[in-house]
Design a protein that fits this description.
The structure is a single chain. By secondary structure, the chain is of the alpha/beta class. The protein contains six helices and five strands. Helix 3 runs parallel beside helix 6. It is globular and about 35 Å long.
Length: about 120
């Protein structure tokens, strides 16, 4: 059986969550043995078009139309969407600039039944 495919994406954010991934060092290499990393901007060139994956991990806030379009495409190409970090979970940075984050996220995630918020 093939390893599950995962992808890690970031929208508008502070990069803090991705840096935490990198700080795992050897554990990250062990993780990569059990999963196929189909896309991750910090370790490989841009995945264009977006790959079909089992799990998509998204960090960052939907601020621009491009962020929203990207998130919709990620959701369509993934079986499970995981929002990682405060920016993705609550719209942290955006809440101070605009009050639309939760509404935008609800529109994006309402098409598919399984979305996890961590």
């Amino acid at each position: 059986m093939a390893n599950p495919k995962i992808a890690i994406f970031d929208l508008t954010d502070c990069e803090g969550c991705e840096l935490q991934f990198l700080s795992l060092k050897e554990k990250l290499l062990e993780f990569a043995e059990d999963f196929d990393i189909a896309a991750w901007r910090l370790v490989q060139p841009s995945a264009d078009p977006l790959p079909q994956v089992d799990v998509a991990i998204v960090q960052g806030t939907v601020i621009t139309q491009k962020d929203r379009d990207t998130l919709k495409a990620i959701r369509q190409n993934s079986k499970i969407l995981v929002a990682l970090g405060e920016c993705a979970r609550t719209g942290w940075k955006r809440k101070t600039a605009q009050k639309q984050s939760n509404t935008s996220m609800a529109r994006v995630t309402s098409r598919r039944p399984l979305t996890l918020w961590l």
